[in-house]
Amino acid sequence: MLWSRRNLHLCSSLSSLSSTAGLLFFIPLVLISSVACILGPAKSFLSFSSPFAWRSAGLYGYYSQISINEEFKYNYLKREGEVPSSHMIRNGSLNQTVVLKDPTDHQPAHEAKEVSGNAIINRYSKLERLETMLSKARNSIRKAAENGSMTSKHEDAGYVPHGPMYRSANAFHRSYLEMEKNFKVYVYQEGEPPIFHDGPCRSIYSTEGRFIHEMEMGNFYRTKNPDEALVYFLPFSVVAMVQYLYEPGGHDRLAIGHTLADYIGLIAGKHPFWNRSLGADHFMLSCHDWGPYSTTYVPQLFNNSIRVLCNANTSEGFNPLKDVSLPEIHLRTGEITGLIGGPSPSRRSILAFFAGRLHGHIRYLLLEQWKEKDQDVQVYDNLPAGVSYESMLRKSRFCLSPSGYEVASPRVVEAIYAECIPVLISDSYVPPFSDVLNWKSFSVEVAVKDIPNIKKILMNISQTQYIRMHRRLKQVQRHFVINGPPKRFDLFHMIMHSIWLRRLNIQIED
């Protein structure tokens, strides 16, 4: 049965009546899908593939491992003869006419024009005020970045970022304070649970459900006035779409794509904000493996929007200049109780550890090279009877985190929780919060081709260096912790900060 519920542990306590109502709403929505006529041309004006456009746009250069070239920092000048770069969005497009439904079309033409004109003027004057505020925030963060300190100089009654775990602690702290003061998110109300406005909270996809739940609670950043918003959240759950719209064992994912395309079409036809920016100030969030693929059904969503994804794979179109890498966290009970913390370095007897199924070629290479080969590098596809996975994490100095079928793995955060130095084994993975965190200071990156050299690489890390990395790992741990309700600098706020940074790097004009 296509619409059957298959053990999706949602964050909300939805009744069967509300779930049924939501499905009744979306069955016809899927059936009447018409992607092309709603979304227009497949090739959008906005293309964030050009690093020049982004480097010249805003603040990413102070954080990113990509935009560190001084030549590009804050260069707002356009090259002669060049089309406006992708950070400058003028009412949708240079070559597209944005047609908005006039709510006063029942009035005489001249009256409708006057009322409509006033509404447009008022709306865009609000937009200009928002852009002015963002400009001031950019200047403030720029000055903090130029300070170059590893410790923030800003007063804060709570946590103050410091140390080499941050690319620029001072700039990050200034940016975070600006976010707390200015960032507002509008959550579209269209759509019904369980496919919209809800998500899983007790599964490998918990990050997706917990974030949607917090946005629905509305205790942080959310505004009910869309004219006040800096970004717009599309509250659909890809996990729920797979659960309700996909037939297990089949290969047809069109129902998911059509539902998503219809939803964007509904949003674009009902509100002016999508057409105004071609989706560049909109964001979606997904921890499902199919999250990136689902966005390909809406070219503007794929090319322009901020996609917050666990599967942050650059070989599959993930663009770290506009997209956000989301940590994958497996909350089997929905809580992190008992998962945080571990023994000191001196009490960890195993050099490196991994246990997991044979998913993908990287894990195949890892198990082929190291399974039952070395007591220092303990690699399993199945742990021996009576051996606890969590206890092995806490006994190990380094925890191997190879990509599976997809690049993301919950083992990265599991290692951080257990205070075991994560070893990232992937060729295309962008680690979470790389815009502000210096991963090399508290983790180890191993290329796939170097899997045979893992022991040598890890043994070459001195005890002094390891203790230093362990201390830094404990300091950044707070950024990966799920709290209910959220606390400053925790996972929820770090996700929001990554989205805030992407919004800082675009400028929207009427």
TrEMBL record:
<dbReference type="InterPro" id="IPR040911">
    <property type="entry name" value="Exostosin_GT47"/>
</dbReference>
<keyword id="KW-0333">Golgi apparatus</keyword>
<keyword id="KW-1133">Transmembrane helix</keyword>
<keyword id="KW-0472">Membrane</keyword>
<keyword id="KW-0808">Transferase</keyword>
<dbReference type="GO" id="GO:0000139">
    <property type="term" value="C:Golgi membrane"/>
</dbReference>
<keyword id="KW-0812">Transmembrane</keyword>
<keyword id="KW-0735">Signal-anchor</keyword>
<keyword id="KW-0328">Glycosyltransferase</keyword>
<comment type="similarity">
    <text>Belongs to the glycosyltransferase 47 family.</text>
</comment>
<feature type="transmembrane region" description="Helical">
    <location>
        <begin position="20"/>
        <end position="40"/>
    </location>
</feature>
<feature type="domain" description="Exostosin GT47">
    <location>
        <begin position="180"/>
        <end position="460"/>
    </location>
</feature>
<dbReference type="InterPro" id="IPR004263">
    <property type="entry name" value="Exostosin"/>
</dbReference>
<dbReference type="Pfam" id="PF03016">
    <property type="entry name" value="Exostosin_GT47"/>
</dbReference>
<protein>
    <recommendedName>
        <fullName>Exostosin GT47 domain-containing protein</fullName>
    </recommendedName>
</protein>
<dbReference type="GO" id="GO:0016757">
    <property type="term" value="F:glycosyltransferase activity"/>
</dbReference>
